Every structure is written in C-alpha cells, then in structure tokens.
Amino acid sequence: MKIKGIIISAFPGTGKTTAAGLMKEAVDLESTPFKFPVDWEKGIVPTEEAEDWVQKYVDQITLLASECGYNFVFVSSHQEVRKELRKREIPFISVIPQADLRDEYMIRYIGRGNDMKFLRNVYDNWFDWLHEYDNEVFDNIFDLEGKPQEIIIHLKSGQYVSDLLPLSYLQRGVKP
User: Hey, which CATH number is domain 6-100+131-169, 3.40.50, 1.10.40, 2.60.40, 3.40.720?
Assistant: First the structure.
C-alpha cells in the first residue's frame, strides 16, 4: 500500500487537532478509541488497554494516508506507535517540544481542560518521554533509495504544528 499523505506524529499539546481543523484534507486520528474500545452493546468502557490497539491504530493510519485521500494524518506520539510505523517502514514526521518547555505545555494542557490525572502523568513523564526520541534505534530511518522515513522536529516556545505547514494548506475557518 503506497502512502500518499504525510503522517505527523505529534506530542500532546502541539496543536494536532487545531491544525487538522484548519486544513482541507487533514484528519487528527485520536488513539484513545483504539486503546480503550467501548463495548457499545454492553455499555462497558474498558480500564485496560486493548492488546492489539497499536496494530489496529496503525492500520487505520495507513488507510487514511493511502486510500482515503488525506494529505495530512495527525497521530499519537506514543512510542509503540512510532515503533510500529518504523517496523512497517511507513514514513512519518515526529513533532516534539523542546525539553525545557514543560511549564509552557502544562499551561496549554490546563487551558484546554485536561484533567489532573493527565496533568500529573505528563508532568511526571515529560523528560522520560522526550528522552525516548534520543534513545530510539533508527534502523530504518532511510529507505532503500536514501529518502528519510522519519524526521524529528523540535518546537520552540510559542510554536505549534500549524506553524510548520505551508500557508497554502491552511484554510482558516474552514472545517474539513
């Protein structure tokens, strides 16, 4: 399956949802419904992650970026998702904040209404999560033709994902 769209794996609070809403032919694929799929017949919301959520999530990413016509697919920055994308040799861009921006991002999370559990989780794991990018093995960072399969972009203070995109893709006020 040939990937036609650009897959952007971006850290929480970098503006994935906002960017997708400003662009034509873009989607923000939330990972939570894959991690914790609701059993609608029984009305049960699981408390443990689905065993195969990463594979199903990456299957959906692949479908959206290849057959569904999306130019941009914004996805989770979970390490296991990035590993699966690499394993399948699917090119993607990682967008992460600079490590010294934790306080700025905590303010972003509070401003968008994240709960205390989320805030504590991010605050406690911030440096470990960002350090994962330094420690990951990039065996397949280039394909056989020498084209990069993964690019990592560090956002500076005040920057969002949409700041990185060409203006021609942004359609302010237009929902896809």
Answer: 3.40.50
Q: Where are the domains of the chain?
A: 6-100+131-169
Asked if 21 and 175 touch (Cβ cutoff 8 Å), the reply is: yes
**CA-to-CA separations, 129 to 1, 11, 160, in angstroms, rounded:** 30, 9, 19
Task: Calculate mean pLDDT across residues 30-50.
Answer: 88
pTM listed for this prediction: 0.86
Tell whether the model's pLDDT for residue 106 goes beyond 50.
yes
24: closest CA among 63, 75, 71?
71
